[in-house]
Design a protein that fits this description.
alpha/beta; single chain; seven-stranded mixed beta sheet; 40% helix
Length: 946
Amino acid sequence: MLPRQSVLDESVWGKSRGLDPALPPYPLVRHLLDAAAMALHLWDVYLADNQRARIADGMGLGGELGRARALVGLCAGLHDIGKLSGFQLCSRRAAQFLSSELAAGSERMSTDRAGHDVAGMTAAAEVLKVLGFGHDDEMSATARVAEIIGGHHGRFHRLENGVGPAFLGGAAWAGQRAAHAEAVHDALGAPTTPGSFEAPVAVLVTGVVILADWLVSQEGYLRQRQRKLEPSLTAHFRHSQADAATLLRDAGLTPVELERKDFAEAYGIAGEPNPLQQSVMDELPAAAGAGRRGGITLVTTAPGDGKSETALEAERILSKIFGTHGYAFLLPTMATSDQMHDRVARTLRNQSGEDAGLTLVHSMAWLSSAYADDDLDGETVVTCDGDEAPAGRRRREADMRPGRWLRGPKRPLLAQFAVGTIDQALMAVLPVRHNALRMLALSNKTFIVDEAHAYDPYMQVLLGRLLNWLGFYGVPVVLLSATLPGSVGDRLIKEYLQGAGHKSKALKRQTFPAPYPGWLYVDGETGRCAQISQVRHMEQARSRNMRLRVDVERVVHGGQGVAADRIVVIKRLLEPVATGYGGTALVVCNTVGDAQETYLQLREEIDRRSHEKEGDVQLLHARFPGDVREERTAKVTAGLGRSGPRPVRRIVVATQVVEQSLDLDADIVISDLAPLSLLLQRAGRCWRHEHHWQRHGYPDGRGRPGWAGEPRLVVLDPLAGGGRMPVQWGEVYSEHLLGKTSRKLAEIEGGGIAIPDDVQGLVEAVHGDSEDFDWNDPGSIGAKAWAEHKGKETAERSMAALCAVRRARQVAELHDLHDLEGEEDEWEVSTRLGADSVRLLCAYVQEEGQLTLDVAGVQLLPEATKDGRMPAPTVRQVMRRTIPVRADWFRDAEPDSLRPPFSWAEHPMLGDLRVLRQPVRQGKAQSVKVGDKTLRLDQDLGLVRE
């Protein structure tokens, strides 16, 4: 080892902005020691067994966990070594405290604004050489540590794109970099060079470094340490180690051990587990074995069969075997995530998990009532990301990033138990800032994906890519679906196994068919398969055996005056509910416009009371303000839920928001034509709880109405008899899939569907891999629809492959994770094609000119301060009134007509809103022309576009 070149100079500052101005800035070496101490604690407490083992293996230190731990601490302790550069001059006040020796050379340093992350990456080789690290080739541990240092603000850089020597300063500055590095190195017991450093492992280590940095950079903590510096660095490091546990616990990230209860008590369900659940409890432990490199489980069963509880039982087993701390439960939509969050919260409370970190994760999660207002105002984290730039929106945005992770809407990914949308996980395999932190968060818990069938080809590719990375990390995975085509399940399993190290050539010769109903487990290390026993499989099939009557009604949209008019047909079908013995019906429409029109017609004929006045006809779709939608979803779920009380008469008109994960039971389901897998999902809301009620009694002691003698799905088919697809459906669904579904329904009608026996066969017939092109009539409507469908599917898969990061074992340099030009923040990429959307705030212009949040004119639209700030509860109040809408609605709108108030322009959330200013005349809101359409927010119908 080379001798130390300089005595350590504590005038070099690490943190200044936001601290006590009466004191010198916080010394850099102290901050580096804080981060190193926190990284050690994260290794001991936060990281799961699979993560620790994988990191050690990836460093060539299999079985030497202590050495790997120290090296992770070293990476964290060197993360800000680049601040020993021209960075010291970016704060005039802090630079005044520099020692005369360093200040004397500073005038010769570059005045260019460069990031200290890139400066640290550039200087790393020189620093690590002092510590005894070699640099034999491009893939050396030295180069990998340099990449980690360069990526600690969430974005990796090319090693060759470093800073110039002038910015790093002369010999005095180089000496201080060596002295600071040796101080950290000595505190950690002088860790030695690892034998190797695999790129995916370095991604996890980067996540640890980022989290450690943020936890020890909280303003309150820094002020506390700034006011009382220990006399020696040894004493300081001991203090930092002692503080680490409190910082992690206060962030809600300390894992909590649950008190595992029996099935009924854990889930609050009367009765015993069903055969599928019992099979997982009895047979999965032996299938998973001792557990080394994770495994993937696929659970397939009909809607209403308790997949969620089955998944949580599988998680309990797999987490114990593989050492993961909790789980991420991910779903297709925000509405289903909100519902599942409540169920998981009850489950954790039942197992003494009140103190566990359970959080909701989706883009608008912080608007949910699950978050109290005081959760929204997190403590400032002083990252110095953006300090090199002038004060302004970029710096404010940089300041907000860690707060969103530690206290805000992204914290759920880091917490022990996370429930949310799949999009938040898929960001881990897109080239966005902090994808390394997402990988860290996801790889320490069991990964559960519900409704695995619900994703388009673009999202399936992204999900497969994420499973590839999770397979590399040995993360146990559970996929749930009622209608997953075998080909899709097979691809997802193979992606996981390829990440775990299996060769793609060998995997091509294998298939992984899953029993239906049942489960399939594939071991990550060996590829060995196990599945539900035949006895349990048959028991499950018998226990949920139901014959679903399927009727097809040929309809014409807008065919007023004819018997086949869609509204006329719906009214006829609902006569028993409206005029007879009552009961419950669910009418599922393909578009919001159709749902609004259907609701209006039924309300006029059946019950003129509105939804808000507890009328018999209710409306639910995605185009309500957030707070209204949350309230309506809760009311609909309560009325049609398992426990009751059930209304005597209730007709719910809804869109696709009800077809997944909402626990609803209707006496009859009437649905617009949709792809067959989705029709089966909608049908899963018909007699969903019948078996349970037959065993345990119906809510209120009242059975189903006399007219409901069997579960019945009625499909409103505009294609039957040679009809055409309604214009207003646009591109909601593939015309090819709708045509195949229509033809399959014609074969079924009158015979019904045996559930679960017929489900998988029907799904494969419509959605499985097949060659449907009619070569004899290539110009037919069907052939054109097939070509369009296949072209779109291929394009979506290709687009996802281009956008996603490489598979784990194909990554050579960490820059591969950000191999796109620009700063690629999360809002600049999409996890869903065609999902470009904006949030619309419907405000009201009163006759006196005031702009208000309510039509009555009581709540004035709040103004931000001059620097764009606003109290978090006020921001929440505004954002809860917003509605997600398609961005292309406003393509032809006057640019200034939808701009938010001037004072919101610099706010990172409010500044991106569109504001619809609705004039109020005689107490009623008027429509606003936007392009060639008009928009208005109706209190009963939601946002109406005409």
